[in-house]
Design brief:
Number of helices of chain A: 15
CATH superfamily of the largest domain in chain B: HscB, C-terminal domain
Strand content of chain A: 15-25%
CATH superfamily of one domain in chain A: Substrate Binding Domain Of DNAk, Chain A, domain 1
Distance between the termini of chain A: 46 Å
Structural class of chain A: alpha+beta
Number of strands of chain A: 26
Distance between the termini of chain B: 48 Å
Shape of chain B: globular
Largest interface: A-B, 55 and 40 residues
Oligomer: heterodimer
CATH topology of one domain in chain A: Substrate Binding Domain Of DNAk, Chain A, domain 1
Structural class of chain B: mainly alpha
CATH architecture of the largest domain in chain B: Up-down Bundle
Number of strands of chain B: 0
Order of helices and strands of chain B: HHHHHHH
CATH class of the largest domain in chain B: Mainly Alpha
């Protein structure tokens, strides 16, 4: 009976709906998917264009407009319209980003506030919520176009995003009702789109200058395995900064001409930014352009030549050299050892950027024949399909952690535990000793960054390990283990070694939303108010239970010989309990039963992996003998 | 638990066929990477993840010769520790280290980049020589000599890292 129940499952690994890749960009967002013929396609999100402006406008009743419709509101409603929200992901209210040129209005910072919030008139919203609106609209438009539900997605992030920024992006995905299959680094996604297309082999540099972020990654491609050797970047440098530099110059010139200081006027700032963006685009083709600044009372035209524009942005472009150089060094490569350079991001259309990249990588002409705006989304779609089980057997991405992880020690100095450019998933442990007699607690401050002092690094989390038995100084020993998963997200556990007192935390970044906040938002969001949350959770729990049972039976059929005495009985008991829970309607009970079965089969699963490893190695030696 | 050589299935020793090492790493990654187990039950995903973490750690250790040598010595009970290896070093090398540091310090103060580059070139040459000698020491089974060479190589690597850090700072000041 139990067996026939299993056969009814169509394919337990398949998440419901079409898997998609989403490029959640600073200026634009895109959705891509794999069509029936196995080709990657982008979804037209705005008319015929796949580029949906990453702009969210809040109406008085709290509902939103996203994309071009929202951007059209910028000139008249600068405070209620959020652009470039990606720059604020994972940022605290006191971050320097908050004070840069822009037209945002921020909610007054509350003491202990971990995240910055925009005041959009009707309410205060965090960057995670704003990003979730973009994702929800992208998802809806994709569903309408594909005429099928979209449930699971790979969302791309800049390779140089830290833990807080990654966590914030993942939270935004959840809030938009998506199953986030993976956070994929943008340059890696671009490499996938290029590499698979060309069956390439060799060492490539990916130069990715997006709207608000800059990444450079160096990868080695061999037979479908994309091994990232190093990555570096600047998570607050992008084409937006070109616009700001030009807008600043325009405002100064116009203010002088009109005899009135417009540099802080939100309407004028907005108009100048829009004019600067158009002029920048025009200057990629033409030698000169006219910036049309539509001030509320009159329109001002300013002529800009390409050399003038280049003199404004040349320092920004040169700043990317730091990261390029570091990436090369970390990969232990010289520029001439790079076989090709791939350009990603709309800002790489600027001729000065192309010229710079050519010079940086030994004079090689960079590749840009896949549309630099679409290439990231396409790579993400390929990986989404891969993870959803439509596996391309030859594709595997081995990525790295962009910034070192460590803990603060005596004197505020950072002890690095995982170094930057270590391949993920990874884990590492370090032992710390007590410094005072009778010390019973230890504070652990987790930081990310390359600087020596913790105060110069990004603070990720603080937690306290209690229950150390009183001992003389230096006798209490605490082992702190850092684990980074394939999304680049960290979890930390700590253990007192003499007693075994253990604490495990998922690092919820200091500058992030708490789990409770995310759950509350999920419940509040319109998307979920429309449907019965409990029913949805129950359905999901049952699907997960079927998936677990399916895998377990397959494992038992394959490796019954690996079961220890009594183990089969323990697993069978847990399985029976799960089946009973599945008959009921309490999703908590099903989840608990899944967890119990999981515990009962953990050692068995480990032995299976060990055996698989041995077989892999043996198979190899047999081949060698032949 | 299996050691790093066993995990990657290569013969235990200092001389490693790098191509073979890379191939094996890729093959095992294809089997155990979390992406390959995306839709499986939590127990299976965790077991694969643990294995992949071990594979990554083994590869990170064995692909880099100095780390590989230190690891090999630790398997034979000769713990060098991460930093303190000076007890394995001959006194004349320690003298050289001091002189080299002083030369770098002087060049740095004067901003003499050419001199710094020359010091780096020399350190690189010595590094190559020490690596060749290290392979010889392992071939002869001379662990004490190998330990001394590992300590020397670590000194040279730290010295080169300091030079790189200085060059990066100079570069940053010019491009910042």
């Amino acid at each position: 009976m139990a067996e026939s129940g299993l056969l009814q499952i169509r394919d337990p690994r398949k998440p419901h709906g079409k898997p998609v890749g989403i490029d959640l960009g600073t200026t634009h967002s895109l959705v891509a998917y794999i069509d029936g013929g196995g080709r990657a396609q982008t979804v037209p999100l705005e008319g015929d264009s796949p580029l949906m402006p990453s702009v969210v406008h809040y109406l008085e009743d709290g509902s939103t407009l996203v994309g071009r419709a929202a951007r059209a509101k910028l000139a008249t409603h600068p405070h209620e319209t959020i652009v470039s929200v990606k720059r604020f992901m994972g940022k605290g209210p006191n971050d320097p980003e908050v004070r840069r040129l822009g037209h945002y209005r921020f909610a007054p910072a509350q003491p202990g506030d971990a995240v910055v919030r925009f005041d959009v008139g009707c309410k205060w919203v965090s960057p995670v919520e704003v990003s979730a609106e973009i994702l929800k609209w992208a998802r809806r438009k994709a569903e309408a176009y594909l005429d099928q539900p979209v449930g699971a997605a790979v969302i791309t992030v800049p390779a140089y995003f830290d833990d807080a920024q990654r966590q914030a992006t993942k939270d935004a995905g959840r809030l938009a009702g998506l199953e986030v299959l993976r956070l994929l680094n943008e340059p890696t996604a671009a490499a996938v789109a290029y590499g698979l297309d060309r069956r390439a082999r060799g060492t490539f540099a990916i130069y990715d200058l997006g709207g608000g972020t800059f990444d450079v990654s160096i990868l080695e491609l061999v037979e479908g395995v994309f091994e990232v050797r190093s990555t570096a970047g600047d998570s607050s440098l992008g084409g937006d900064d070109f616009d700001r530099a030009l807008a600043q110059a325009l405002l100064e010139q116009i203010s002088a001409a009109l005899g009135r200081d417009l540099r802080q006027d939100p309407f004028a700032v907005q108009a100048a930014l829009a004019a600067a963006r158009d002029a920048k685009h025009a200057l990629s083709e033409a030698e000169k352009a006219v910036a049309v600044v539509a001030l509320p009372e009159r329109t001002v035209e300013v002529e800009v030549t390409r050399p003038q524009f280049e003199s404004l942005v040349v320092d920004l472009v040169r700043r990317t050299a730091l990261a390029c150089r570091r990436a090369l060094r970390d990969a232990e490569l010289e520029p001439h050892q790079i076989d090709g350079v791939v350009l990603v991001g709309g800002s790489t259309r600027v001729p000065l950027v192309r010229q710079f990249v050519r010079e940086m990588f030994g004079g090689k002409e960079p590749l840009g024949d896949i549309d630099p705006d679409r290439v990231v989304a396409i790579g993400a779609a390929i990986q989404a399909e891969n993870l959803a089980g439509e596996s391309r057997d030859d594709l595997l991405l081995l990525d790295v952690i962009p910034l070192s992880l460590g803990v603060e020690t005596m004197g505020g100095v950072v002890e690095k535990i995982i170094h930057r450019n270590t391949t993920i998933p990874t884990s590492a442990a370090q032992i710390f000793t007590t410094f005072a007699d009778g010390q019973t607690a230890m504070d652990i401050h987790v930081v990310q960054g390359e600087r020596e002092l913790a105060s110069d690094c990004r603070s990720l989390a603080r937690f306290r390990l209690d229950g150390i038995p009183p001992m003389p100084a230096n006798m209490g020993r605490v082992q702190v283990t850092f684990s980074v998963d394939a999304d680049g997200i960290l979890s930390v556990s700590a253990k007192e070694l003499t007693t075994g007192v253990e604490q495990s935390i998922t690092v919820k970044p200091s500058h992030g939303l708490t789990e409770e906040e995310v759950e509350r938002m999920l419940l509040e969001s319109l998307e979920h108010a429309e449907e019965d949350v409990a029913t949805r959770l129950l359905v999901e729990a049952r699907i997960e239970a079927q998936r677990v049972l399916h895998d377990l039976h397959k494992a038992l059929a394959e490796s019954a010989d690996l079961l220890l005495e009594g183990e089969r009985e323990a697993i069978a008991r847990a399985e029976q309990a799960l089946r009973e829970a599945m008959e009921g309607t309490d999703h908590h009970r099903i989840e608990e039963a899944i967890a119990d079965l999981d515990r009962a089969s953990t050692d068995f699963a480990r032995r299976r992996m060990e055996k698989a490893l041995r077989e892999a190695l043996t198979g190899r030696s047999v081949q060698e003998i032949e | 638990m299996a050691d790093h050589f066993e995990i990657l299935g290569i013969p235990r020793g200092f001389r490693v066929d790098e191509r073979d090492l890379e191939t094996r790493y890729r093959e095992l990654s294809r089997l155990f990477h979390p992406d390959r187990h995306a839709g499986r039950s939590a127990a299976e995903r965790r077991a694969a993840l643990e294995k992949m973490v071990q594979i990554n750690e083994a590869y990170r250790t064995l692909r880099e010769p100095v780390r590989r040598a230190a690891y090999l010595l630790s398997l034979r009970g000769l713990e060098l520790g991460e930093t303190d290896g000076s007890k394995h070093l001959p006194p004349d090398f320690l003298m050289e280290v001091m002189e080299r540091r002083e030369a770098f310090e002087e060049a740095r103060v004067r901003g003499d980049r050419e001199r710094v580059r020359a010091l780096a070139r020399q350190a690189h040459r010595e590094r190559e020589e020490a690596l060749a000698a290290l392979a010889g020491a392992f071939d002869r089974g001379d662990d004490r000599e190998a330990a001394s060479l590992v300590s020397k190589l670590r000194y040279l690597d730290r010295f080169l890292a300091e030079i790189r850090a200085w060059e990066d700072r100079v570069f940053e000041e010019e491009h910042g």
